[in-house]
Structures are given as C-alpha cells and as structure tokens.
C-alpha cells in the first residue's frame, strides 16, 4: 500500500531539525567551492550527487506469501514526539504528520504517474480522470458515478468546486491560496468579494465533470501536485461550517467523512481508529479496520521488536544503528525521499492583507555573505555520518535528485570550509570585537551581533549544539530555542519578532516547481525573500517557452544557481526514507516511489491482507 504525497508539505518526521525548505549559495568564480570538483579524503573523485545510490541497498517493495486470515486490523506506527493536529481536511492539512491520518479515509481523486505526472482513471484506481487542453488553457476532471462519501451521499464535481471556494474565501486560514490557485479564472474576484461564484469553474449538468479555466497554462500544470489543485470537500456536510472556524469544527476533527477505504471510528491526539468502508468504490477492504498510533522515537524500535505494528514508515535516521541489522519479522524498504532539510533566514514579513511577501533589505540577516558564511561553517558531511549513520546525506540543491531532468549536478552546495566562511564575514564588514578568532563578531555598525535560531523538539539537542558551536567557531553568537512542532510553525508562519534563523524541512511532493515555496505571493515563502531577478527566474520556469522540456530544464538550472548564490535558505540534508514492514502484511510499496498507482490491485490499501493473527516477531 502507499500514501501519495501530492502537495508540498511541511515535513514532520524527526529530521535534522524539523521541517521546512530550501537551499544555499556560493560565491561566483572559478575556485568557488559551490562548483569546484570534489575529492574524497584520499584525493579520489567523488560520485556526483546525481550518481549516488540513495537506496542503501534496500528494495522499495515487498510481497509476502501465505494464507490470509479473515479480517483483522492493520496496526500502523507513526513516529513523532508531537501530537498531530487532527485536521481531517485536504484544504487545511499542511504538515506531513497530519497528512498521515488523512491517508486511509480521504480517498484518491487523482494520483501520481511514474514521471510524477498527474493521472487518473480506472487503470490507476482513482475516483476521477483528467484531461488537459493546452490551447484552451483548461483541465477537465471527470468523476466516476459510483463514488460515495462515508455517509452515503454521492461524490460530485461540485465537491471540488466547494474546496476551491473554501480556499478562496476571505476568511480561509490555510496555506493553499497561492499563485497556482490565483491562476484560476475568477478566483481573485471571488476572494475579494466581487463575485458570488468562481467563473472559471464550470460544472456539467450531471455534476460529475468540472472544467477549470486558467489564465495561463503553466508548464507544471500536468505535474502531480503542480498547477491543478485536486482538493475536494463534501459540500453537503461542511457547507454550514464557518470558514474562519473550519479547523475547530466537529465535522472536521471529531466526525469527518471521506470516500477512502476506511472510515474514522474514533480519534485522539495520539491514535486514530478506522473501520472498513464496505461501499468503497474499488471494493470493500480485506481487513476489518486499521489503527494509526503515534510512537515516540525513543520507543519505536522496542515497539517493533514486540510486534506492536504492521509497518512504520519514515523511520528515524538518527537511530538507524539500532535497526540497521534488521528487526526479526520485518523487511526494511528504502527510497530517496522527495524531501530536504534546510536552514532558513528571516528576511521580511508576510503581508496577509495584500497576499504577498514584504522583503526587508535591512533585515539582520540581509547580507548574503553572512548567510553563505554560516552555510560553509557547517560540516554537514560529518553531521550526516555522526547523527544519521549515512541515511541522510549532504544536500547540494533544493531540487531533489529524483527529479533528474531538473536537478543541477554541477552545483556542489556549501562544502565545509571555515577559511571561506571567515573570509566572507571579513569582507562583508563583520569585524571581531577583539583579536581575530577571539570572542564574537560585531555587526556592521560595531554593535554586538546576536542571532536567534529556533528549531523543533524531538531531536537530540546535541544536533543543535553542533550548529551553535560551528557558528561560534567563526565568531557568530547564535542562541537557540527549541519549540514543540505546532508552536514552531506558528512562529515561523507569523514571522515572530526576534527570530533570525530557523531549521526546517520540506516534503516537496511530486512537483519541484519552486514558485509555490519561494514565490512572492506564496505564504510558504517563509524566508520572505524577494527580488526582481528572483521573480523573473521563477516566472521563466513557468513561462510559455518552458513548455519546451529543454528550455524548462535550463530554467531550473539557472534558478538553482541564483538561489544558491543568494542563499535566503540553504539545503542541509537529503534523506533515504526507510520503512519497516511486518512479514504478515501481504504487500507494501514504499510511499516515495512514483508510478505504482497502476498496481493498486496488489498494493492498494483496500487490498492489503494479513497473513497471521498478530505481527510476526521472528
């Protein structure tokens, strides 16, 4: 079985820190370590980032043989030290932890093809199919006529319209009203209260087909998680819920409905109990139910050894040594995740009223040489080996190597180089308060330079001390505060005063187009970075010329080079996502692997069977 990551989400498995996004820079010039040839400790050429094997030798799927039992309950462990938000809504869920609980009940409107394209129809086992018309600038979604919400009401294309109306509502509190949404004809007029309907959404008479009219047919329109929002909410069930209070409503938190293979029976902040939905359009599930339970990182290995779970995906990398040799009764699966950890810098504010970034060129972290110096001061290769036993590796770009057509192999990121870091700070005017190399540096006005960093709890604090001490070595006084995940993101999203640096990660889903994370009209642009040149490069990736694959690939290369040079954020780690699957599970495919949707008869959650009464422990 698999859970698709269709949209860019805040990554939530215990990561180098936490979860958010992006990249780094380097000086231009022939000797810039961001582009120079890299050798290993013996002076031999290292494999380029695009040539590495990120699977660690593990397969990405497993099929177990045996006689299935009748019914049974699937037990899934979700590794976290933080309670999930418990928001059962595709329009409002925005972090990977919360998305876990949506998977079994929400249902798949469309899905991801082997090239990360947006696909659907009977061959993919989805509730709808999709057709594109580039000339007309439209996408047409057609639903099957045998798909029903968990309360028995038919799923219609008007439920997609309703989701768009929620997102475009002036009181909407989520993160999905972005550039892609504003590309829908008439949606801005609806958002501004100038129209009662979204003119670019046209329903067929039978309410099963929706045609979406776009202002521009952008090159990422056909990508899964790209320009077409595939959100859906039951209008008949939620239309009387106040949008401003949507996330608190019982219909969203306590008694949600979807059209997936399992219905929510009960939920708390640490467990969700599901029961089989007998009228699921692909057929009733083979098991009676399933339960998702949070498990602290410190307990997950012992819980697996005790046979508490049928599978755990996103196993913590920083405890890899404790399960590296395998756990009896389980198969380990691995695949490079569409994820990267990063260090971000606060460079402005979000103007919610105007829906755009307000970049502050005078912000404390505004000098890119300060940011690049901080990147070069970190020995990420050592960090990856010391803290993650090689399961994570130094990232050189905010484009993950899975996206081979767009990933820039020539960029080497920010290799560890203390001399370069000090040189950048010296040249930028950050003088030492005493003798060079002693104490801390001053800001450009000769005043003490104090930098505040925030990160999330759930990771060994020595990791954050590594960052702090690395920056202290180049004369930077960085103090940090650890926050629970929800509090952390509240501070990041609200641009809390006094926060200068934040450690985070992004799960980038199936579309690497950076505009949604770094565009001037994206609330997810947490660094609040904006320049005319940057906006032009983002627009180039989405331009009419970029329908030419070679042009678009080159535009991605140029954007990566510029973004690394400016370093409003810089990437730290990529990660091999590891899952442990019990031998009593009939079949499982790694959720990070694209193109498995056609194999839903084998891996679909509704078709998973159990081969024994309890998980195997030997």
Q: Can you walk me through this structure?
A:
It contains 16 helices and 23 strands. It is of the alpha+beta class and 618 residues long. Strands 1, 3, 10, 11, 12, 13, 14, 15, 18, 19, 20, 21 and 22 form a 13-stranded mixed β-sheet that branches. It is globular, with a radius of gyration of 24 Å. This is Oligopeptide ABC transporter substrate-binding protein. InterPro entries: Peptide/Ni-bd, SBP_5, SBP_5_dom. GO terms for molecular function: peptide transmembrane transporter activity. Keywords: Signal, Transport.
The overall pLDDT, averaged over residues, is 90
Please state the CA-atom Rg, rounded to the nearest Å. 24 Å
CATH superfamily of one domain: Dipeptide-binding Protein, Domain 3
CATH architecture verdict of one domain: Roll
- The number of helical runs is 16
The CATH topology of one domain:
Dipeptide-binding Protein, domain 3
Class by SSE composition: alpha+beta
Strand % is 15-25%
Q: Largest sheet, if any? A: 13 strands, mixed
- Indicate the CATH class of one domain: Alpha Beta
The backbone outline, from C-alpha atoms, is: globular
User: First CA to last CA: what distance?
Assistant: 23 Å
The helical percent reads 10-25%
């Amino acid at each position: 079985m698999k859970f698709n990551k269709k949209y860019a989400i805040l990554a939530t498995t215990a990561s180098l820190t936490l979860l958010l996004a992006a990249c780094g820079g380097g000086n231009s010039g022939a000797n810039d370590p961001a582009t120079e040839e890299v050798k290993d400790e013996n002076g031999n050429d290292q494999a380029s980032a695009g040539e590495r094997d990120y699977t660690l030798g593990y397969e990405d799927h497993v099929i177990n043989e045996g006689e299935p039992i009748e019914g049974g309950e699937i037990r899934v462990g979700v590794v976290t030290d933080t309670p999930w938000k418990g928001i059962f809504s595709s329009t409002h869920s925005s972090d990977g932890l919360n998305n876990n609980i949506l998977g079994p009940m929400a249902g798949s409107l469309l899905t991801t093809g082997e090239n990360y394209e947006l696909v659907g129809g009977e061959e993919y086992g989805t509730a709808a199919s999709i057709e594109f018309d580039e000339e007309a600038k439209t996408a047409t979604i057609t639903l099957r006529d045998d798909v029903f919400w968990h309360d028995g009401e038919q799923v219609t294309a008007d439920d997609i319209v309703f989701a768009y109306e929620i997102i475009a509502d002036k009181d909407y509190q989520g993160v999905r009203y972005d550039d892609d949404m504003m590309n829908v004809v008439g949606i801005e007029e609806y958002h501004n209260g100038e129209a009662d309907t979204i003119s670019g959404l046209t329903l067929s008479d039978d309410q099963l087909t929706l045609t979406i009219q776009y202002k521009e047919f952008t090159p990422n329109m056909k990508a899964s998680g790209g320009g077409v929002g595939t959100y859906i909410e039951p209008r008949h069930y939620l239309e009387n819920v106040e949008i401003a209070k949507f996330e608190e409503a019982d219909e969203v938190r306590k008694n949600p409905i979807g059209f997936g293979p399992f219905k929510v029976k009960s939920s708390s902040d640490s467990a969700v109990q599901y029961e089989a939905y007998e009228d699921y359009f692909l057929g009733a599930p083979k098991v009676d139910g399933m339960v998702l339970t949070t498990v602290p990182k410190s307990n997950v290995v012992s819980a697996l050894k005790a046979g508490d779970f049928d599978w755990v995906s996103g196993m913590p990398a920083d405890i890899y040594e404790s399960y590296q040799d395998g756990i009896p009764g389980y198969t380990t699966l691995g695949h490079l995740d569409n994820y990267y950890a990063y260090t971000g810098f606060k460079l402005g504010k979000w103007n919610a009223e105007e829906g755009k970034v307000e970049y502050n060129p005078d912000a404390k972290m505004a000098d890119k040489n300060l940011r690049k110096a901080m990147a070069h001061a970190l020995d990420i290769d050592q960090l990856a080996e010391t803290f993650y036993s090689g399961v994570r590796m130094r990232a050189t770009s905010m484009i993950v190597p899975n996206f081979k057509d767009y990933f820039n192999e020539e960029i080497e990121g920010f290799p560890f180089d203390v001399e370069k870091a000090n040189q950048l700070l010296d040249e930028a005017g950050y003088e030492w308060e005493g003798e060079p190399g002693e104490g801390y540096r001053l800001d450009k006005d000769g005043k003490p330079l104090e930098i505040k960093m925030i990160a999330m709890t759930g990771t060994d604090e020595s990791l954050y001390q590594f960052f702090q001490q690395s920056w202290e070595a180049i004369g930077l006084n960085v103090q940090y505060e650890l926050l629970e995940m929800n509090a952390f993101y509240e501070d990041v999203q609200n641009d809390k005063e006094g926060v200068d640096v934040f450690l985070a990660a992004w799960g980038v889903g199936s579309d690497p187009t950076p505009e949604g994370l770094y565009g001037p009209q994206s609330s997810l642009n947490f660094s609040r970075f904006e320049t005319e040149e940057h906006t032009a490069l983002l627009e180039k990736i989405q331009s009419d010329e970029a329908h030419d694959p070679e042009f678009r690939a080159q535009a991605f290369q140029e954007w990566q080079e510029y973004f690394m040079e400016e370093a409003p954020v810089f990437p730290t780690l990529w990660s091999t996502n590891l899952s442990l699957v019990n031998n009593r599970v009939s079949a499982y495919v790694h959720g990070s692997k694209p193109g498995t949707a056609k194999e839903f008869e084998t891996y679909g959650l509704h078709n998973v069977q159990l081969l024994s009464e309890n998980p195997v422990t030997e």
